[in-house]
Amino acid sequence: MAKTILTNDDGIDAPGLAALYLASESLGPRIVVAPHTVRSGSGHAVTTRDPLIVTKTREGWFSTTGMPADCARVALTRLAPDAEWVLSGINRGGNLGADTYISGTVAAAREAALLGKQAIAFSQYVRSDLEIDWSWTQRQTTRTLEQLLALPPDPTAFWNVNFPHVPLPAPDPEIVFCGLDLNPLDVGFEDGETIGEDSRLMHYTGTYHGRPRARGRDVAVCFEGAIAVTRIPLDITGQSASCR
């Protein structure tokens, strides 16, 4: 049986990765290849000039000094080239809309798709007033996996899944297939102290939770309490047709 590769951008010890491992138990053999430390927000950065250190931490688990996309590359070219699926996550924090260009979690799935494999990125949106119950996220991951694995293979795209953060106990949320919200993030900076004669610090002041959103797209779907599932084509010119 072909292996399934698991990776993330929160690091090999992240609770979301442990939850993904448990949620994917029905898939059979799995190999974990994840960064040795947090690589959140690394986007699709890769390592080509410096060597990567790949360390076996336990049976079937490997850490690397590289980025999430590096993990997908190493796994698919050296450690498990016969793998059919790459699952990335479960990220602590949403990867919605414009986030998909910044996210290391999504980049690992994108890299896998570019290398000809089926891939899914999973993220758990986080509200500041609630704690994450990873066992709940694990259950929702299993539910969503069952639906996506039953679909015909699509070599032209990968899936991006975002779980809402809802007060518990609560019914299992609806799984909604939707397109990316193409609104920009709420971005702002304020001046800090001056450093020397010509330099000053600037502090980011963007508000993630207050970002603009389009009705029916992934940001609104997730923020309103449903599981947002988005097909992301490798040809980004086809993005407008990604909502189904």
Describe the structure.
This protein is an alpha/beta fold and 244 residues long. It has a single domain (4-185, 213-241), classed as 3-Layer(aba) Sandwich (Stationary-phase Survival Protein Sure Homolog, Chain: A). Helix content is 22%, strand content 26%. It contains 5 helices and 11 strands. It has helices at residues 15-23, 68-79, 104-114, 134-149, 218-223, and strands at 4-7, 30-35, 54-58, 61-64, 85-92, 118-124, 157-163, 175-177, 189-195, 199-204, 227-233. The strands form 2 sheets. Strands 3-4-2-1-5-6-7-11-8 form a 9-stranded mixed beta sheet, with helices on both faces. The chain has a two-stranded antiparallel sheet with strand order 9-10. α1 (15-23) crosses α4 and α2 (68-79) runs parallel beside α3. The longest helix is centred in the middle third of the chain and has 16 residues, at 134-149. The model is unreliable at 240-244 (pLDDT under 50).
Summarize the structure.
The protein is α/β, with parallel strands linked by helices.
- SSE class: alpha/beta
Mean pLDDT: 93
| Low-pLDDT runs | 240-244
Order of SSEs:
EHEEEHEHEHEEEEHE
CATH architectural arrangement: 3-Layer(aba) Sandwich
Count of extended strands? 11
Distance between the termini: 32 Å
Total number of domains: 1
CATH topology: Stationary-phase Survival Protein Sure Homolog, Chain: A
Strand content: 25-35%
Strand count, sense and barrel status of the largest sheet are: 9 strands, mixed
Number of helices: 5
| Widest beta sheet: strand line-up | 3-4-2-1-5-6-7-11-8
